[in-house]
Amino acid sequence: MNFLEQIFNEILYQPLLNALVLLYGFLPGHDFGIAIIVLTILIRIALSPLMVQSIKSQKNLSNIQTKSQEIQLKHKNNKEKQAQELMELYQREKINPLGGCLPVLIQLPVLIALYRVFWKGLQPEALNLLYNFVLRPEAINPYFLGVLDLSQPNLVLAVLAGISQYFQAKMMVPKKEKSKSKEPLDQFSKQLTQQTLYFFPAFTFFILLKLPAAVGLYWLVTILFTMIQQYFIYPSYSKT
User: Fold this and answer.
1) How far apart are CA 197 and CA 194, in angstroms?
2) Who has greater pLDDT, 165 or 177?
């Protein structure tokens, strides 16, 4: 194990694994699925400031999408001028083009650690990483509500996550994208938005088909939590 991997395990993977097992032992019924849901919600609450910033940045960039496309087309043969005018546009609108990416990048190590926890946390050797104060269970029952085996891929969860991903992305589409304008820029923007709306849900679906249902449950809860955040931050986005 190299140094970076060791740091990753000690700072993220091991604490999250212990939190999951602690919840599993503490919650009534010792339901692994309920423990995943509770842990996911706690993580999302902790990351809420970053998510709010990311959502706001996405919204702001969407609002100036037409203007930025006009600049790109106007100076398509002059990349230097294009970059200059785009930066001036961002400055006028007080937008940081990386504002939506930075929070996501900060969250990425946490997400990777969670995937590892949900993917490998059921294996007996993973329990060797428990802290002394965490009661070690003889075994972890991987079933959610007694019917869904979270250690195996599950079609239903993959479908639900894909559908939820679609509606979550649709909530972020500005109203102007829903217009019937015949302008070339508006049509291009609409086509790009439509492709994005369908690509990520399909990607989510096919990925989750190959992963344990624990990951699918985590992803579904994450999407639903994000949709709730978006609804309260930008209620106009969730109303047609």
Assistant:
1) 5
2) 165
Comparing CA positions, the residue from 23, 58, 62 lying closest to residue 226 is 58
Domain boundaries, the chain: 3-238
Distances (CA, A) of 2 to 106, 164, 187: 22, 38, 50
Contact 71, 82 (CB under 8 A): yes
pLDDT digits (tens, 9 = 90+) for 40-95: 999 888 888 877 777 677 776 776 767 777 777 777 777 777 788 878 777 777 77
Nearest-CA neighbor of 215 among 168, 148, 145? 148
Q: How far apart are CA 70 and CA 158, in angstroms?
A: 38
The SS3 call for residue 23 is helix
